[in-house]
Amino acid sequence: MNDSKADEYIDFNLRHAWHKISRMYNQKAKAHGLTMSIGFILLIVDKEGTPSTQLGPRMGMEPTSLSRTLKTMETRGYIYREVDKSDKRKVLIFLTEEGIKLRKQVKQVVVEFNEKLLHAIPKEKLKTFFEVMNLVDEHVEDELKTINFFN
User: Fold this and answer.
1) With 0-12 CB in 10 A as exposed, 13-18 as middle and 19+ as buried, what is 2?
2) First to last CA, the chain
3) pTM of the prediction?
4) What whole-number distance in Å separates Cα of residue 90 and Cα of residue 23?
5) pLDDT (tens digit per residue) in 67-98
6) Which CATH number do you get for residue 29?
7) H or E segment and range at residue 84
8) Residue 146 lies in a domain
9) What CA–CA distance (Å, rounded) separates 53 from 90?
10) Does residue 14 belong to any structural domain of this protein?
């Protein structure tokens, strides 16, 4: 594999595909005055409220970027924050009526794209894809466990 080209590596292909998907979603979001990050947050926040501390890890966002995005969403009236009644240390994020409307639009865009993929990819290949992605995920988890930051 030493003489391999970059496009023959699994992780290169994953990153390349994700980069294109990310660009596509950002362009679609931009047409509605949003960003892909705002769209994902709209999809992740649930009716019972979502702790702000769960959003970053679920989205792969740094705390600074997440804080800035949440502030933008709050300023635009898409979300509001409340202190958890049972645990005053927790801040829950909720969608406003405007946020709920936008969530429906964002969900429709995601569902439509996924339906196109589901129609274009034969079921057996899709099954294999998900099996491979699970294996990749397991191997990444294993690698993360073996990283020693103090070497």
Assistant:
1) exposed
2) 27
3) 0.80
4) 33
5) 999 999 999 999 999 998 888 888 999 999 99
6) 1.10.10.10
7) none
8) no
9) 8
10) yes
